[in-house]
Amino acid sequence: MEHNPANSNFIRNIIKEDLESGKRNHVITRFPPEPNGYLHIGHAKSIVINFDLADEFNGKTNLRFDDTNPVKEDAEFVQSIKEDVKWLGYDWDGLFFASDYFEEMYNRAVLLIKKGKAYVEDLSADEIRAYRGTLKEPGKDSPYRDRSVEENLDLFQRMREGEFGNGEKVLRAKIDMKSPNINLRDPVIYRISHASHHNTGDKWCIYPMYAFAHPIEDALEDVTHSICTVEFEDQRPLYNWVVAETEMESVPQQIEFGRLNITNAVMSKRKLRKFVEEGIVDGWDDPRMPTISGLRRKGYTPGAIRTFVRETGVSKGSGFVDSQMLDHFVREDLKLQTPRTMGILRPLKVVITNYPEGQVESLEAEINPENPEMGTRQIPFSREIYIEQEDFMEDPPKKYFRLFPGNEVRLKHAYFIKCENVIKDEEGNVVEIHCTYDPETKSGSGFTGRKVKGTIHWVEATQAVPAEFRLYEPLMLDEEPEAEVKADVADVEVKEDEIVEVEKNFLDRVNPNSLQALQGFVEPNMKDVKAQDKFQFFRHGYFNVDPKHSSADNIVFNLIVSLKSSFKL
Ligand code: ATP
Ligand code: MG
After folding, report:
1. Domains of the chain from N-terminus onward
2. pTM above 0.90, yes or no
3. Which of 179, 304, 496, 518 could make an SS bond with 333 (beta carbons 3.0 to 4.6 A apart)?
4. Pocket test for ligand 1, best of 9, 29, 39, 43 (most atoms within 8 A of CB)
5. In this structure, what is the dihedral angle of CA atoms 451, 455, 459, 460, given to the nearest 10 degrees?
6. How far is the CA of 488 from the centre of ligand 2 (A)?
7. Residue 259 is among the residues annotated as catalytic for this protein
């Protein structure tokens, strides 16, 4: 796989030193998604970092589903995540589920209790919050903190057996209520949740919290470098505490990097789910979604996504990256591999009055002038063609070089035509243009008699294939939608009303014009296109055949990217 050592990546340096100093003799990384939604481009960053680093140091990368929260998780998401990782071009070594370790985790929690390092708490979530203190004030010990080991063992077992309702009790690590690091103020490590789990069914009604489960998962898999995003930085001391106190044999090292944020996109699965549930988009794979499946359906390529992610580098900071940078790499990737063709998005009929009625000729055109190996195609030409409405103006401004009464333009791959007459309906709308053509000016004939300033594209009308073109704009109006509220890593559940508050205002900023569908025509040689086929439509941009809505009767093309970019690398 392609590596660009020039890109800064401080994690690579840490791994290199670990191997050189003998601290490690092998490298294992992991990509640990929670199966509570579809992967997005931010996850692609984590995937590329983890797999590339292991690859570079002859190590291994596991795909591990961090499925410790039964209410939000689903087998559908497990399936889609596997597909997306593969599509991005990666193959995991081990495939694991955190839920397969529940028994092991339970035993480690029992070990903590026996060591006097964990206790069963009866306070409610709100009380726990109140007792925890703030950044300025130390926390207070819970009245249940000094329960005996025996009582704790008994209560924890009864929690497992289902004796208590949700929220009635939790298990907390006994660390330090006065620690300056709030994460160490006796974090909750187990909670009760009477809910069916996608993998373990109804076997469990207590589930480990992320902060407890994750280090154990890493250690059990002998992960050497546990790479995560910066919001976990303050949790690192807790991570290390769990590994040490549960007496794990293998000691992983947590390393944090800055999240990837992209302009005009929200990237939390919770918010993306909201788009799906509210019907704002057509599923998780809607081409406007920053999900991997959305980008795939829009027509982005895995190679372009990998290059983009690598070029953004690996650092501690998480600023916004301009979405145009991703588009730039998509164009670069598509330029040489996609066939070029002509399509009319907003048709206007042109009749070439001096072209013999009933005659159709076949013109030859290169499929991709930048890649001659792709060969040529045949395009029919006859008396009736379609052009773009915007390529004709009855009353043009200065410097308009396309069609207007009396003006001559070049039809790409065909002839010069001259506008002679404009046909209108009763309301004065232009319905048809009458032109004449000059047979001497055939493309490729070497005609040098005179020059024209405009070249426009067209499609022969009698054989044209109807097609729908879907044009997209970003879903979010804000260039930098407010960064993710990382509440779900806290040791107690986020309050529903907090979430609702966040979601209410981000939905207000959805772009109402993010999708525009146009009914036009494409060349007849396009009639057998298949899902995910990609083309460059002359003067318009790159398009992908929509895998969900395209059919033989109605071909649907999604705009991938336009041709022009103001982006400078
Ligand atoms: P979300 O809030 O979107 O659900 P998450 O962090 O909760 O994101 P996980 O399924 O837990 O999602 O993430 C799996 C891995 O992907 C984690 O290691 C996480 O840090 C990483 N990741 C998630 N979002 C980003 C991002 N925007 N940039 C880089 N890495 C990310
Ligand atoms: Mg999450």
Report:
1. 347-463 (2.40.240.10)
2. yes
3. 304
4. 43
5. -10
6. 7
7. yes
